[in-house]
Design a protein that fits this description.
It is built from 26 helices and 26 strands. Helices cover 44% and strands 18% of the residues. With 715 residues, the protein is an alpha/beta fold. It has 3 domains: 82-112 and 259-309 and 326-501 and 546-567, Malate synthase, domain 3 (TIM Barrel); 137-256, Malate synthase G - maily-beta sub-domain; 580-714, Malate synthase, domain III (Malate Synthase G, Chain: A, Domain 4, Up-down Bundle). The strands form 7 sheets. An 8-stranded parallel beta barrel has the order 3-12-17-20-21-22-23-24, surrounded by 5 helices. Strands 4-11-10-9-8 form a 5-stranded antiparallel sheet. Strands 1-2-18-19 form a 4-stranded antiparallel sheet. The modification Cysteine sulfenic acid (-SOH) is found at residue 608. It catalyses: glyoxylate + acetyl-CoA + H2O = (S)-malate + CoA + H(+). Residues 157-227 form the Malate synthase G alpha-beta insertion domain.
Amino acid sequence: MTNRVDRAGLQVAAELAEFIENTALPGTGVAADAFWDGFSALVHDFGPKNRDLLEKREAIQSQIDDWHTTRAGQAHDEVAYDAFLRDIGYIVPHGEDFTIDTASVDPEIASVAGPQLVVPITNARFALNAANARWGSLYDAFYGTDAMGRAPHGKGYDRGHGSRVVARTRVFLDDAFPIAGASHGDVSTYAVDDGQLMVDGKPLMSPGQFAGYTGDASAPDTILLKNNGLHVELVFDADSVIGSNDRARLADVRLESALSAIMDCEDSVACVDAEDKVLAYSNWLGLMRGDLEAVLEKGGKTITRKLHDDRTYTAPDGSDLTLKGRALLWIRNVGHLMTNPAILDRDGNEAFEGLMDSMITTLIAKHDLARDSGNSVHGSVYIVKPKMHGPEEVAFTNDIFAHVENTLGLPANTIKVGIMDEERRTSANLKGCIRAAKSRVAFINTGFLDRTGDEIHTSMEAGPFSRKDFIKRKGWITAYENQNVDIGLECGLSGKAQIGKGMWAMPDAMAAMIEQKIEHPRAGANCAWVPSPTAATLHALHYHKVDVFAVQDMLKKGGHRSSLQSLLDIPVARFRGWTDAQIQREVENNAQGILGYVVRWIDSGVGCSKVPDMNNVGLMEDRATCRISAQHIANWLHHDVVDEATVLEALRKMAVVVDGQNAGDDSYRPMAPDFDGIAFQAASDLVFRGREQPSGYTEPVLHRRRLELKAQRNA
């Protein structure tokens, strides 16, 4: 039984109230009574509107379901479908042209393009790693991955591989920072002469790329270069193993890598009660105060990780130059759907978790705003708001943030919003969504994983969908990705806000990432998600090759590359002559991904993890990937592509596989042979009750089952 205290009509879990009053509030200048009064007004005044918006989602979905069922067996009529969606308010008028007027946006968001990380805020070590991933060693990234085709051989130092790393890095330097009449691979001295970098006595072809140095000008300890807004640091050390064997004594090349990072309270965490929320908020507080630490054992030693300091150099004109040592941090709040038992309203209803997050994470961010060298140098708070359906829900978020600012004594539009373009109704009305928050929008992003899950659920009654790999090849997704950039540029985001792209899901496949992910900056995206700090360093190479703002300028002249009709093309299977083996493999692949993710979510409270697929390839899984797999099986079940007995057999077969993949974990509880554990039941719920889940989301099932497990353990 949760111990609760009354605060302005709210019944608040005692541990959450204690955290807010004794830890989060001190130092913000906000009185406890004022905070709770404003919080209570937020819950009680905005809660009913929140419920109305969720009911509208369901009403619209019901009408779409009916439209498809009454036309079962008929050819899809695009014109009639478009008119129908407008008639029910699914598509709303775009309105007149406009440009956003968001102000006080930090350069990492507005004017420099680069990689972005997303990490669970409940894991302090991951959060610190992401924040500190602003700078990364290119030598380490090349050496420790398959980025150059293979990983190093053996346990000791692979000299041949190391030599190839050095050579490959010199190629990068020649491409990004060419020297007049020479190559970085041949030079022996780097020196600063009268404010100019000289390399074996020769200048850079673009002398303005020299940004600073440390140490003695004639023999610097580091040289700072700059290209497309991103910095690169050359580190010289004759006493190091690498530097002592290098003609120029170059020991490392460090790239400015993750310019920004999203600390996630949503898809990658498992926060179901006050205990979990306090952990999430505590880590966010540590980041905002700058004192978060994580203690870990590595190589038999105890290591304490902290946030990196800023970096200071001597600029070419002799002045001091200070650069951020950490990524600029966003906090991703929960969407509008879920409630949380940490707070009950005066009627005993659980408060909406998104309302909780907006008030508490912004309160915590006030600690950063009071610091001289913290997260935002322009006095902004950056909040990503996921899973919004259409302009009305974005406008609701805008109103929530305005109330929070008023309660906490912040200037209007201090809170900047990131709009996740990951629901179909948002994609169809993206311009209206941006308009609804045009004075605070600082980020839009294509989330193709959730977007695919919503695509399936929205058109569940239209027919059986293609296999997952083929869904990604359909025309709708190209239209979706192009439209996001085109509309962002049309609304004036270039130079004011980020236009982002989604995650690379294979953290061990860096060679493939280097080959493929360059398409994101080429598409005009200011940032794109990567799964690790190492991946951020490798992805940074793409932003040295591609001038994103030049690409955006070119795209602005070309007009829209896709139509709304293309965006709304439903990726149902045109050819349905699948063999039994193809059907079985598709279902088993989905089942394996669901089980591998859900068992860790339910049993261990891990909201994001690298889950081996059927071929033992590690894939990053979170609730978005789980949503796709569950909705896909639910769709095939509904249209009799497969029956329940076959799906249950696949779940049980894959449970055995997942048990084997986790055999080395002593804390792991096998699902087989009884298949009666809560985790297996949760996975079954996601599939067999998938059609009835709101928008096909996994959260209601996962939260309910995780709470069930926690209650069982505490009994």
